[in-house]
Design brief:
Elements: H1 2-6, E1 11-18, E2 25-27, E3 30-37, E4 43-50, E5 56-62, E6 67-70, E7 77-85, E8 90-97
Antiparallel strand pairs: 1-8, 2-3, 3-4, 4-5, 6-7, 7-8
Length: 106
């Protein structure tokens, strides 16, 4: 049911896998820079920003804990969630409104 809401009509869903931490990636206009994974691989730290904002740091985020992000100057809400963590890799998804399709999210 949760995945249906995230993948529902009006939303774009983009999965990601990061194998090199400390190297920023850009998804749908949001830059994600994953910096740290806890030794137990249950928490991570990340910095986020869009083209118009400064970096926002989220520390000690648990796996399967969503991070919600509003694009600067818009009412569009993005959701980032990391589902799996390894010693130096992360897997998860980004969910954004389809109104951002013009930003190359497909």
């Amino acid at each position: 049911q949760e995945l249906a809401r995230i993948k529902g009509p009006g939303r774009l869903y983009k999965e990601f896998e990061i194998t090199q931490l400390q190297k920023p990636i850009v998804l749908c206009g949001i830059t994600l820079n994953f910096e740290d994974i806890s030794p137990s691989q249950t928490q991570y730290s990340v910095k986020l920003r869009d083209d118009l904002s400064d970096w926002v740091e989220k520390k000690n985020v648990y796996l399967n804990e969503p991070i919600y992000w509003y694009y600067t100057g818009r009412r569009d809400l993005a959701e980032v969630l990391v589902k799996q963590a390894g010693a130096d890799s992360l897997r998860g998804y980004l969910s954004v409104p389809k109104t951002l399709d013009s930003d190359g999210c497909r």
